[in-house]
Target: Pyridoxal-dependent decarboxylase domain-containing protein 1
Amino acid sequence: MGKNLKEAMKMLEHSQRRTEEENGKKLVSGDIPGPLQGSGQDMVSILQLVQNLMHGEEEEESQSPRIQNIGEQGHIALLGHSLGAYISTLDKEKLRKLTTRILSDTTLWLCRIFRYENGCAYFHEEEREGLAKICRLALHSCYEDFVVDGFNVLYNKKPVIYLSAAARPGLGQYLCNQLGLPFPCLCRVPCNTMFGSQHQMDVAFLEKLIKEDVERGKLPLLLVANAGTAAVGHTDKIGRLKELCEQYGIWLHVEGVNLATLALGYVSSSVLAATKCDSMTLTPGPWLGLPAVPAVTLYKHDDPALTLVAGLTSNKPADKLRALPLWLSLQYLGLDGIVERIKHACQLSQRLQESLKKVNHIKILVEDELSSPVVVFRFFQELPGSDPVPTAVPVPNMAPSTVGRERHSCDALNRWLGEQLKQLVPASGLTVMDLEVEGVCIRFSPLMTAAVLGTRGEDVDQLVACIQSKLPVLTCTLQLREEFKQEVTGTAGLLYVDDPNWPGIGVVRYEHANDDKNSLKLDPEGEKIHAGLLKKLHELESDLTFKMGPEYKSMKSCIYIGMASDDVDISELVETIAVTAREIEENSRLLENMTEVVRKGIQEAQVQLQKANEERLLEEGVLRQIPVVGSVLNWFSPVQASQKGRTFNLTAGSLESTEHTYVYKAQGAGVTPPQTPSGTRAKQRLPGQKPFKRSLRGSDALSETSSVSHVEDLEKLEHLSGVPEPDGLEPGGPEPHPGAPPPQEAELTGAFQNGAQRPEDDRPQVEEPESLR
Model:
């Protein structure tokens, strides 16, 4: 069985799919796939079909692996499912003994590993299913007549389930749906606001809520605490919560990723207190890198009848066989292998945390710096007049709108940073999340991803290096945003669009002549102009990225400018956008009006040609129009008729006579077309310099009449001849000729020429005429 499974996995993990020609089978168009086509198929063909269904119709090889990288322990877990199906064919007595042994062994091992003595275990596929069964057990324990009367006993004394505000989303709704309870039975307990972590449950406020519910005649039923919240991995004060639950007779259930550290030698006191709770949910699959392994809920209860009614225990062998994959995997790994994987994940978190402390503009949201297996960080900027650490409280010197705009701006940058890091270091398993107080953050939780992705210490170092390489891009973009806004505001025809969710330099929209500034609806003419503008900007091949938006097409189009990796000349960028958009608008107007102009010109030409034909008839007379008489009359007295025609000038949009063309044998110049608008601050770029980059040399290094060749001569002269550059003209010196080069260039060029010709002839060189220069 193991051999067949290994061969099947090799076939499914193989990246290349054999074609129909390689298989030697050609499907007829009328064949029906599956068992309906007649004879059965062999295992290879069936697995090939499964592989095709898994990978779909992919034509290009994706960079990421198509299937999760499964190690030897993963194959053991997958073998458990096949072995469970095989074991289910045994006779009932052998099956009962074997399944009881597997269930008891797995329960004992998990309780010993995670320090939960004398507990029972419930294995389930859905991670939240165990908590739902625990709630049902608590209902049966608190309401004795619940089995007989059902929900009628809940009417007089309504149960209350307490959840933290930092609990995973949708947990309360799932419990109510599974238990058939109304939503008012849920009580959301807020987190700390003044003291302690802002992701920990407020114990004092919880006690106040419990007292109020008791006074109202309600029954506090169950409290769900977190040993590592789903967002940032913070742990509630479980010891204090356990005391409160014992005081009011409430069932305490704990869940969270930090429960994995119970297998280590050193455990923090807050997590260690979870061993005294009434129940806890473990997820050993992600922690140990085991695919298709069920979650486990450990609990303590003395009445087996109630656990059977609640669904935590079952007499069916198939339910007990759920533990078989975990039973095989735990034996394969051993205690040392389990501890090593969890310890390795915690070391990765500590390594990243220590490295990020040395990086500027990175804030770390860690509860316990010594033993936190989850690292949450974000990029931040120092606001003027505020503390370096960003808070949710508005700064007194700043308007609330400014604080909100800065908050959204930082969120957009962090979202961009997270997506970039996920692409650059896929083995890190990063997650981008939006927190209510801090905003958008990046989470590194190796306990949930390291065993599956194979994260190593080198991946953490690469992650830190990528963060450091992206920080200049973020800071440079932030510095250029305000300058970009001022330049766009001061440029005619451009409108600055304030979109704080865009992580780039900014957003700009060109306002054409027919643009309705008071309306935000879709503008077809503006859409066409911005599409052409985007195409022109892409043709410049600059380092900046341009995008046309927004995503929803009901709004006006804009140009979104991306992140800046270097010092960008904002003035040149804005001017290029304005000039290019204006040129596109004028060209589009010309094309739109050309059809109407040509139509009117043709009609006018027809009218004029008809008039000319009538004049010719009057001039020649009626006799010349008679066929025979006209020929004789023309032979005796020929008519000297001038060739007249019409030409249409597209530039001027007017009709002109062709008499000038036939007389002088040349076409007229017509009206000179208007010049294409150009920028007033157009600058020359050095060879290899990309658009919108600030020049490294000063502005006086290049004059209006100089060229790149002069700069090259300058550099050659500095390295070869060592002639010093003159400081400039003397104040009282004569002014140079407008067409002549500047004195510095003339002297240096002459010196360079003299130095090149002196080996052949030592005579003084005669000054060249000014025209040759």
